[in-house]
Amino acid sequence: MVSENKLLLSFLLELSEALSNYGQLRIQEELPKLFCEVIKADGCAVYVQKINNYILHKQYSSSASSHFASSWRQIGWNLSTAAVYIDAPETAGRYFQGGIWQRCLLLPLLREDKIEGVLLAGWAGASPLDGLLQEELRLLQPISQLLSDIYCTTHLITALKEREKSLSILYQKAEQELENGRRQVSLALHDEVGQVLTSILLQLNILQQSEDLDYVKGRLGGLSHITQQTLEEVRRISHNLRPALLENLGLQAALESHIKEYTDSTGIAVEFRHHNLEERLPDDVEIIVYRAVQEGLTNVARHAGASSVMINLTVKGNKLLLQIEDNGKGMEERKSSGLGLLGMEERVKLAKGKFWLLNQKDQGLTLNILLPLV
Ligand SMILES: Nc1ncnc2c1ncn2[C@@H]1O[C@H](COP(=O)(O)OP(=O)(O)O)[C@@H](O)[C@H]1O
Ligand SMILES: [Mg+2]
Q1: Can you say whether residue 99 is alpha, beta or left, with left for phi > 0 and alpha for psi between -120 and 50 degrees?
Q2: From CA 338, how far away is CA 162, in angstroms rounded?
Q3: Distance from the alpha carbon of residue 299 to the mean position of ligand 1, in angstroms
Q4: Nearest CA to ligand 1 atom 23
Q5: Which residues contact 42 (CB under 8 A, 6 or more apart)?
Q6: Ligand 2: distance of its center to the CA of 301 in Å?
Q7: By alpha-carbon position, which residue is closest to atom 26 of ligand 1?
Q8: Ligand 1: which of 308, 325, 329, 331 to mutate, most ligand atoms within 8 Å of CB?
Q9: If residue 49 lies in a helix (H) or strand (E), which one and from where to where?
Q10: pLDDT value at position 76?
Q11: What's the gap in Å between 286 CA and the centre of ligand 2?
Q12: Cβ distance 11 to 121 under 8 Å?
């Protein structure tokens, strides 16, 4: 006979009410406490899987010591996908002040049939679940689904928020650079080019009035010289908007020159391999590759502790692949991503390319960029 199950129903009700009142991040903080209160447990902890390990996500205990939950780490891994209600193992007593847990509930957190974590609750004395039949425990399954949704998506939300923040800083920086660039160009146009053009115009007006052909011819030589100089000035201004080396020498020579300077100043050896780089590439591709190599090499010097770097640049069909591989310590888990890599990723995405990192602890980081050439 199925016993009366007001407890679970009221828990489900309370939970759904709490969910509609809190934001996801807050309910995550409060759930273990709520769980304890509603189910009248003496302690409760949530573990969430992280690679092959479980980390304590949140615990709540009204009378147990703060360490009690660690004794439960060993249990959760052998869980079935169903809720389990069992006699508590003896180890629980070591961490529990004022008594030994008699019973405990293990509730797996499931995502697409995979166990992503576990919720543990324990009772020192009598538990309201004591009267439940095994099939009634299945009523807890929807709760486990809900819990796993809440706990397993939080890190994604946090990562998204961080990325949003970095992007907004990046955007501001780009705006500022653009503004500075505009100011420089407008100053240069006004001071250098504007002055000379005015002077040319004035001289042309004078020559227009003159009937002395020899005089006119003499002045035209001078004017042609000034015009030539102005043309060079205009070129200089436009080159300043792109790295001069890249503009003048092309990608391969510009990279070789940058790499030589880099090795001279840092002592880090760089091997540069390239295939099919003979022809000029589209302007935006050249600049993305050049900037990526600059940033990648700077990062190696600043963060990697590497002794050498290998740069591979291959053009094949209508695709370009750039790889920058160092032999350093690899990237530590990123707390917050810097603007260098993020900016690079955004530029690549704008050009409809792909950007990805290959990280090996103690063996270095490889930065990969794949760009379409159309
Ligand atoms: N080659 C590398 N080796 C190890 N860690 C790296 C490497 N490149 C980047 N990192 C890590 O990634 C973080 C982000 O890099 P980046 O976006 O360029 O920002 P920044 O260089 O300003 O810190 C760095 O702070 C560093 O911890
Ligand atoms: Mg950087």
Answers
A1: left
A2: 11
A3: 5
A4: 338
A5: 36, 61, 62, 63, 64, 96, 101, 122, 123, 124
A6: 10
A7: 303
A8: 331
A9: strand 43-50
A10: 47
A11: 20
A12: no
Q: Which ligand is nearest to the CA of 298?
A: 2
Q: What residues does ligand 1 touch, defined as CB less than 6 Å away? A: 299-300, 302-304, 326, 328, 330-332, 334, 337-342, 365
Residue 350 tokens read as 């704008």
Q: What is the sign, positive or negative, of the torsion defined by CA atoms of 161, 167, 172, 175?
A: negative
Q: How many alpha carbons lie under 13 Å from residue 28 in its C-beta half-sphere?
A: 18
pLDDT score for 234? 82
Ligand 1 atom with the smallest distance to the CA of 343 is: 17
Output the tens digit of pLDDT for each of the chain's 374 residues. Answer: 444 566 667 777 777 777 667 666 677 777 788 878 878 888 887 877 765 566 666 767 655 544 444 555 555 445 667 777 877 766 655 554 555 677 888 888 887 777 777 888 888 888 878 877 777 777 777 777 777 777 777 767 777 888 888 888 888 888 888 888 788 787 778 777 887 888 888 889 889 998 898 989 888 988 898 888 888 888 777 666 667 678 778 899 999 999 999 999 899 999 999 999 988 899 889 999 999 999 999 999 999 999 999 999 999 999 999 999 999 999 987 645 678 898 899 889 989 999 999 999 899 999 999 999 98
CA–CA separation, 104 and 357 (whole Å):
43
Query: In CATH, what is the architecture of 244-372?
Result: 2-Layer Sandwich (3.30)
Domain 6-159 part of CATH 3.30.450.40: yes
* Token pair belonging to 228: 């030539």
From the DSSP assignment, how many helices (H) and strands (E) are in the chain?
12, 10
Q: How far apart are CA 242 and CA 253, in angstroms?
A: 15
What are the residue ranges spanned by the domains of the chain?
6-159, 162-241, 244-372
List the structure tokens of 129: 């679940």
CA neighbor of 92 nearest in space, from 64, 56, 63, 58: 64
What letter represents residue 284's amino acid?
D
